[in-house]
Design a protein that fits this description.
Distance between the termini: 48 Å
Strand content: 15-25%
Number of helices: 21
Largest sheet: 9 strands, mixed
Structural class: alpha/beta
Amino acid sequence: MMRIVHGLPQIEFATPFEDLREMLDVSIEKYPGVPAYVFHEREDGTGSTVTKDYSQLKDDINSFAAGLISQGKVKIDGTGKEHIAVIGANSYPWVIVHNATLFGLGISVPLDKQLADHEVARLCQRGKVTVFAFDYAHLDTALMVKEENPQVHTFILLDRKDKFDEVKKELPELRSLEDLIASGQPRQDLKHEFMSLPIDNKRMAAIYFTSGTTSQSKGVMLSQHNIASNVKQAVRTIPLEVGKRALSVLPLHHTFEGTVGMYCFWATGISVCINENLRTLTKNMKEWEIAIILTVPLMLITMHRQIIKNIEQKGKIKTFEFGLKLTRFLGKFGIDVRRKVFKDIHAALGGKLDLAVSGAAALPAEQQQFFTDIGITCLAGYGLTETSPILSACTPTLNVMGSVGLPLAGVTLAIDSDGSADSEESAGEILAKGENVMLGYYENEEATREVFTEDGWFKTGDIGYFDELDCLHITGRAKSVIVLSNGKNVFPEEVELFFNQIPGVKNVMIWGEATERGAIDLSARFQIDKEALPDSVNTEDEEISKWLRDKVEAINREMTEYKKVKHFVWDESDPIMTTTLKIKRNEELQRLHNELVKQNLSVRDASGKRLLLG
């Protein structure tokens, strides 16, 4: 039995484009003079600010393409023979290479900048990469790609023109992005030829490798139709105001930042400001008066904790709590004074932030409510790389805390459940249909068949249910479900939300540990941030263990019996994570068990203690 919900438009928005190149042309016409990109001249966040409008963006894309074509190795015949990989920090050059590829040079292969060199080299083999664009920080990566990928005929240095001669000694096939743009600028013949290339928007345009080991990761094939459809679906769901400024923080190789943080903002005339790193985030938010940020739950959880800690240190917690009561009361009468009452908090965030959109993992309702309470609309969304990526999202007019909102306009979601799919108890696998659903996995027909039903539904692998408003709630991943010996199912993501609220707990991972008697005990590993612990907690190991034990017991008292955590360990080391800050459960659990074996301990023996994982 399936419960089906169809996404309907929330906003009227004219979207007269069928591919991404056409979308940029529409933006040039609709938003003359509006900055498309804002960034610092130097990669360290210093130097003057550079602004590019939509016309300049298009010209840079076309000039780069013309410059690359003029080198003679890249041929354009509309068949997409060139597979162009791009790796590095978020940057304007990254945007240029990726879009020049989509607009006619070939197939784009965005790669995770946090992957090990050998993993990148092997993904280049699997993705049949022929051109490799990288920033200077990835020189060693490029050298390994050259060594293991004889099919790569051109390397492109995205930044650090001052290092070009040095790098070219090791990579004779090297070209500078800056020089390619300059050489292509006057080539009107090649630019015209490039801009005139027909785009088949149903053909594979990009390969996005999912997180995982090199052998396990799958290459998601997305067409321009997939991506453009998702843009149209999103801009008819979430209102965005022309001219506002958004900060690009999440990695561009991830489809959440790529589709929303690039193309949705193009379509709506939002100026994208490129953040260099987390150290410059607050500075950039203030300097550029950022109004919108795309983020992941861990970033919002960290911001929330820091804000509360600052309030406590200033001795203003009672004033803050009174402010919450006052603004909630006035809000009942349509009087919104949140930004005035909490002006000090807003000033610390740059003064203009009014929209945060969270994706990639479940956002705890507490943090979603907190930011909404202080006058920042905080929306949770849901999607996967395979769906370009957004499937559902909360909106300012329907923001159900703890949910991921309604299906986007043009997206249909279903719950495959034996029950009514209207509660956690009757939850089932989430299925999806829509023009944004991928073409399939690159050169992996078997894996593609496995994720589609016979009647065309895409199987997300996530478990959820719809509430009475048809808002979707995610309870966990089907693959991570813990099956207890009594037959009960526990989704670790759901339990983790409770323990993530403990002050000083930066990350938590729940897993099922088999016992000698054949049962399964829920166990937890906490990453502790000592600086974020309450002032009353002594930072000696034994004191932290005792404090944590009390917190775990308190939470357990509120939990259903079979969801109680029996054992826990803790330390301060970072877990193994994806670039969207989700824990790689299998790898992290292997790391933990290796340390237990090394110390000749069971989880039960180590329970409640600090376990140094290095």
